[in-house]
Amino acid sequence: MHRKILMQPLPRKKKYMKKTFLAALIVLAFGCKKTVTEIVQVPIKHSWLYDSSLFSYNKIITSSVQINDSTLACFNKQIMTFINPSQLNGSTNGAILGTTYGDLIPISLSPKIGVYPTDINTLRVFSASNPNWNFGGFLFKPTYSNSNTSTKGFPLANSGAGYPIINDKYVLAPCEIDYTNQVTKCNLIRIDTTVGIPNSIQLGTSKDIFLTPAPSTTGFSSGNYYSFGFFNKFFLTIANQFYRIDTLGNVKAFGYGPLPIPNCRVSQMFTIGNYLFAITFSDILISNDFGETWSVFASTPGFIYLVLTYQSIGNELYAFYNSQLWRVANTGSTLKYTELDNDGLATSQITGLQKVGKFAFISTLSGLYYRDTATLNTPKK
């Protein structure tokens, strides 16, 4: 008996199994979707926000000033940049200043005028108006004496404004000191607008002011230079002597400082209302007659209060040190310091505080920061 071998069904079964296997692969490949979790980095929003308008060397801001209600000017020794609060993090305009002499020393500023030394023998006085052009100011060179015992040249200030500006019009600049003959020469510069040329200024007059030491002292000696302008008067510490000079050139010599007390040399000055304060190496002094007479307000208040940088914004006084910020109030018998929120400033070294429009701005050596003015006085937690 011969048995027949049925060959046909076997191929059909293999073919069916092959199709089933391919279908399963297709289901696995396209029917089963992998679940992917996407991690999104959410930026941390600080209280102080960084303005990306400035970049590269422009971020090293040594000085800033409110030009008007819609313009902030930021300065280093090479670039002046104008910031519009309604166009933050955007394009800006400005002017080239172009010097690195005394690189991180702040430029002296008012809303209309800027002054800084381009070298030891030259001051540049420029218009800070917006728009600005690079030839809208002038260079000033002093006339020196023939003395061979004098030190000639513009000194660099240790802190604060090197050559303060009063009423957008007057500048006081020491230019020569003679320790042998005990006399210091300053230039009292008057600045005029240039007729017919918008946003341009020119030299009006220059008057020589000669300073001699107060009779109660041993005379000029090597020391730091500080200069300030308040109540239409210049206040000057130079060669360990302190002076008041008005815009007419009248001089009052106080001696080593406003008061005959130890460590009386003035390194900072600020106002609260009509009160004028002076920071010495050990005390805080006060004057209620615009700097003509003085008394001790706080004796040896602590080192930190003597090294803060003080700045008035309208009727409010602020102080800063590195990246810390304080609001300062006069209680009548003491100064009250309230440390303010500095979240976002990191370790930036503060160089100035301004209010423009609805924003408060802090300039630093690493960039510009801003926040809503209404939250500026938020205490630090």
Notes on the protein architecture:
The chain has 381 residues and is mainly β. The protein has a domain at 99-256. The chain contains two helices and 29 strands. Strands 10, 11, 12, 13 and 14 form a five-stranded antiparallel β-sheet that branches. The model is unreliable at 1-30 (pLDDT under 50).
What proportion strand? 35-45%
Low-pLDDT ranges: 1-30
Oligomer: single chain
What's the shape? globular
For the CA atoms, what is the radius of gyration?
A: 33 Å
Average residue-wise pLDDT: 87
Q: Which structural class is indicated by helix and strand composition?
A: mainly beta
Q: Count the beta strands.
A: 29
- The helix count comes to 2
Fraction of helical residues: under 10%
Largest pleated sheet: 5 strands, antiparallel
C-alpha termini separation = 104 Å
Q: What are the main properties of this structure?
A:
mainly beta, 7% helix, 381 residues, four-stranded antiparallel beta sheet, disordered N terminus, 29 strands, 42% strand, 2 helices
How is this structure best summarized?
With about 375 residues, the chain is mainly beta. The protein contains two helices and 29 strands.
What secondary-structure arrangement, pairings included, does this model have?
Layout (H helix, E strand, L loop, with lengths): L8 H23 L17 E3 L11 E6 L2 E5 L3 E5 L9 E4 L11 E2 L3 E7 L2 E6 L10 E3 L9 E3 L12 E2 L3 E9 L4 E11 L7 E11 L14 E5 L2 E6 L2 E6 L4 E5 L12 E5 L2 E5 L3 E5 L7 E5 L3 H5 L1 E5 L2 E6 L2 E7 L4 E5 L10 E7 L2 E6 L2 E6 L9
Antiparallel strand pairs: 1-29, 2-3, 3-4, 4-5, 6-7, 7-8, 8-9, 10-12, 11-12, 12-13, 13-14, 15-16, 16-17, 17-18, 19-20, 20-21, 21-22, 23-24, 24-25, 25-26, 27-28, 28-29
